[in-house]
Amino acid sequence: MKVLVCVKQVKGELNPFDASSLECALRIPGAQVILLSMGRPEVAEMLRGLTRLGVAHAILLSDPTFAGSDTLATAYVLSLAAGQINPDLIVCGRQSVDGDTAQVGPSLAAMLGIPVITNVMELRGADKQAECQTRLGAEAVPLPALITVERGYTLRFPRIRAKTGEVEIWDAQALSADPAKCGLRGSPTRVLRTYESTLGKRKCKFIMPQELPKILDQALNSPRHSVTLPVSKIKLPEVWSIGAESLEMARTIADSVRIIERQPPAQIAELARKESPQVILWDSGLWGRRNAPQVAALLQTGLCADCTTLETDGEQLFMYRPAYGGNIMAKIVCRTLPQMATVRTVEESAAQVVLAAGAGAHDDLPRLREWAQKRGYTLAASRALVDQGLMPYECQVGLTGRSVNPAVYIACGISGAVQHTCAIEQAGTVVAINRDKNARIFEYADYGIVSECSAVFHQARLLANC
User: Fold this and answer.
1) How many angstroms separate the Cα of 143 from the Cα of each of 116, 121, 138, 172?
2) Is residue 88 helix, strand or coil?
3) Coil vs helix vs strand at 382
4) pTM above the 0.85 mark?
5) How far apart are alpha carbons 280 and 341 in whole angstroms?
6) Cα–Cα distance between 102 and 298 in angstroms, integer?
7) Tens-place pLDDT, residues 266-281
8) pLDDT per residue over 299-317, tens digit each?
9) Domains annotated on the chain, with CATH
10) Among 42, 54, 120, 463, which one is least packed by beta carbons within 10 Å?
């Protein structure tokens, strides 16, 4: 069985999701594992190191023509290589930690005309079909197929005497690539500008742990914070919303919104070819993140992921999203039609208090669970704990999870990257507990406690009263 693993180097290291996908592939009995990456020539050194893990051989796609490729152009180049390799199974990481779009895998599958399963927690079989346990449950598709893997596998270390294999370099000529579909030239999406995100900032008042019970009582009797979506002065005549989830966002840029029922990507693409919509919006949940990239690939158009704001001048759609895995917002346009975006939607929460744990509260999860259960709070988590398998995906709050609007949001050990803070903008009162007084989360909190979470929980009075 031939298994192709697509990997990416991010800041000089193997993308963590790709490390998990590689280990997943290496565990398939009797599999011939082939590595495929696209990047600068120096990426070959990383690939050579990975060949010591039991990889049959590695291929690096490197050519100046490929520079600046967006997700669609990247998927195109990878599809040419995959077409030559002809694997039985393609394994990709769910997403890269620098882009967070999760588009390349589904787009690649659509270009190759093979089925895809996303958000795989465990590959349970790969004989005549790929049998997977995913975030949504058990799924299976016939081979050849493509799967995208979560960070559930820990990549092995090489054996002491393992030998280093060679890395083949394939350029644009070797792939017979069309330069018009590669690099910046072939990328329909463009970043117009980037800037530091200030949306959702609050004026934080630092308090002592013993003050928290009183603050919570006051907050529960205060109105929830409301964020009004900006409405464009000049609107588009009509946009499509795949499902009703993105309806509110669609109304900010269009005079009329047509709701298209959820259906297979090929059917949506065919409908779009017939009716030529100017804009198609999708919810950024798991279904949208799987299907929107496939439609984009079938229509050969651009897709901007996880948009928090949209605006238009009546013709061009301007899309805003967190970028570069940090605290930066990007303004993006799509040069092709239809212009497509997945958009963030806020979950109307019945929960009065959401208690969220981050990487800094890793060791305090038992106390957090106890506290939440005792007080009837809803327990949530940042992506760090979910990726480690310590919390289920349905508890994840953030750009790749869900947005919430409880009366009170308590962030324990959460650093406060824009991918998280953009999802709590509509919470009534935000309380942050973090040992780092300079943590970004305090800029987006109403109240802050500079402390280890464990120190807060150790106070008997606090546990007794709140």
Assistant:
1) 10, 18, 16, 28
2) coil
3) coil
4) yes
5) 7
6) 16
7) 999 999 999 999 999 9
8) 999 999 999 899 999 999 9
9) 2-181 (3.40.50.620), 200-225+347-465 (3.40.50.1220), 228-343 (3.40.50.620)
10) 42
